[in-house]
Structure formats: structure tokens, C-alpha cells
Amino acid sequence: MQIAIGALIGNGRSWEDSIDYVIEAEKLGVASIWTGEAWGFDALTPLAYIASKTSKIKLGTSIIQIGSRTPGNLLMSSLALQSMSDGRFALGLGASGPQVMEGFHGINFKNPVRRTRELIEILRIGFSGERLQYEGHEYTLPRKGGEGKSIRTSAPIRDIPIYIAALGPANLELTGELADGWIGGSFMPETAEIFLEKIRTGAKKSGRSINDIDLQIPVSVEFSDDVEEISKRHAMGYGFEFGAMGSKNSNFYKNAYSRQGFAEILEEVQNLWIEGNRDAARDLVPVELALKSNLIGTDDMIRERLKLYKKVGINTLKVGLAGSDKNEKLETLNRLMSLVHELD
């Protein structure tokens, strides 16, 4: 099993501290580092800086918001990063949600799964060195009726792994069919088949196996003997996710956990949040959900959870580390890596 981390970017942190953190994590055996984007910093620019300061650790986006860039722009940026990093870059894509895409980018959020498919198909054409000529529902290159011509990139051609962030059934099948990796979430090993069955179905469509796909799951990591305190605190942290990260009708995180047996109580959590009763919403999130979705508790508890993730076939855990600064986070990471090595 591989361990990945997210970059420490923003929130008053210096870029020097961010790089020190990556370099030390690389020494501890971390396989990859990933950057994301919402409505602050973008995901690609920081990776270029990290690429210039590292030599071995793999670099990925988790995620680039689909629709925030044209296919041609994303092709250029991806090839540039793959060249700068000497082949260490992986492109992670995700649909985001209507609040961000329509509110921040001014892009219609309709048909996100189809848009994902078409974007990947265009990128694969570009990565192969062929001219960008494509006719789809969401993208047509070159545009009809204009003066544009189909153009092939002038950049050096490099193969670039593509990951899809997917929670819904249709997107999970698309991941199995087209992607090199899955960026999961809202995941509990006990109910893994709710996700993995769909990925297998998609993989079969393209003559592949799920074993051909890197399965990556994000988890929080915190060691403590006070299991009651940390599990309750982590559970309450999900209140914002179920209440505010999406609309009443489009909350992918709530929907994913609802398929795993939490539908009724999460409907109540969301309603309380929308009504403005946010403390009650946070308090209602089940502790079980937090314990099964993360690596929190004693060493023995975390060791057993790691075994469960490995048993169901998860290849990579992207860990969010407890700690108020980079040194404390690295201490948590070092402790976790010792447990991971026991599995090998």
C-alpha cells in the first residue's frame, strides 16, 4: 500500500515550509503529493514549484475542476508539468459541483459525466500527438463554421496518467472504463463494493480489470487513546460537508454515504444545517461514520483499519495528518509509515 499526502498550501503558510514538508515526507517514503483547487489557489501552479524542488515523489492534481479550462489549455499545462517533473505528473480530474462551476467559473454544470468522458478522450488524442479533431456533445474541435483548423500540440509528447474523482454510479463506471486511477471519497471499507462493483463494470467495458486501476482513498489520520473525543470531533467535522458542500438536491458526499446506510440520519443533518441549526447538525453526525472513514484512534485500531483497506484492494491512501504545524504532521506521518511497513 502506498501513502500519498496533500500539499500544505495557503492559510498563512510559507512556500518554504510547504517545500520542506514535501521533502521530509519524500524521505519517509511517501509516494505522491497532490494539490487541489476550489476557489483559492489553482492546482497546477503549485505543482510546478514542487516539481522544481523535488526529484522522486510523484505529483498529482486532486482535483482539476472539469470545465474550468479548455481541453487545449489543459493539454498544454499537463504536458508542461510532465516535462518539468521528468514524468512524475498525474492528472486528476473532477466535476466539482454547480455552486463552484456556475457561481465561480460561470460554466454550465449540466452533463458532468459526459463532459468528463469527452475531455478525457480529447486529452488522450493530444497526448498521443494527433491533431485535436473531435465532435461531441460538450466539445467540438475545431469549432464548426469558423476559421479554426485541427492542430496537434508542438510540445514533446509524454504519456500522462489520468485519475477521476468519482462518487456517483455513472462516474464510477466511467472511471473503470477510461481512467488510470480513481480518487475516491466518502468511503468505508465495510461497504467498499458499493463503489468497486461499478468500477469493475466499467473496466470490463474496455477489456480491463480493476487491478489495472490505482484506487486512492483520502483519510484523516490522528493517533490518540481518547477515542471518544477524537471520533466525536471528526464526526462533527462532517456537518459542513453534508450541510454546505452542495445544494439540497446535489450533495455528492451525502448521497455517497446514504448509499452506505446513513440516508435517514444524513437527511436530518442536512435539514438542520439548512435551517441554520448548525451545532445540532454537527452533533447528529454518527461517530461510526467518522471511525469507519478515517484512520483515527490507537495504534492497534489504525493498524486494523489499514488491513481492511488493503483487504478490499485499496492501493493508495491520501492522508490528512493531525498536527498544528509541519513538524507535528511529520511526526504523525512517521508513526503511520511504521504501521504501513508492517503490512508489506
Topology:
Blueprint: E1 2-6, H1 15-27, E2 32-35, H2 44-53, E3 58-61, E4 64-65, H3 71-84, E5 89-94, H4 98-103, H5 112-127, E6 134-135, E7 140-141, E8 162-165, H6 169-178, E9 181-183, H7 193-205, E10 214-223, H8 227-244, H9 252-274, H10 278-284, H11 287-293, E11 295-297, H12 299-311, E12 316-321, H13 326-343
Parallel strand pairs: 1-2, 1-12, 2-3, 3-5, 4-5, 5-8, 8-9, 9-10, 10-11, 10-12
Antiparallel strand pairs: 6-7
Helix pairs in contact: 1-13, 2-3, 3-5, 6-7, 8-9, 8-10, 8-11, 9-10, 12-13
Shape: globular
What is the CATH class of the largest domain?
Alpha Beta
Query: Mean pLDDT, nearest integer?
Result: 96
Multimeric organization = single chain
How many DSSP H or I helices? Answer: 13
How many structural domains in the coordinates? 2
Percent in strands: 5-15%
Amino- and carboxy-terminal Cα gap: 8 Å
Give helix % range. 40-55%
Low-confidence stretches: none
In this structure, how is the largest beta sheet organized? 8 strands, parallel, barrel
Total DSSP E strands: 12
Specify Rg, calculated over alpha carbons. Answer: 20 Å
Provide the succession of SSEs.
Answer: EHEHEEHEHHEEEHEHEHHHHEHEH
- The CATH architecture assignment of the largest domain turns out to be Alpha-Beta Barrel
Helix and strand content put the structural class at: alpha/beta
CATH topology of the largest domain: TIM Barrel
Strand order of the largest sheet: 1-2-3-5-8-9-10-12
Per CATH, the superfamily of the largest domain is: Luciferase-like domain
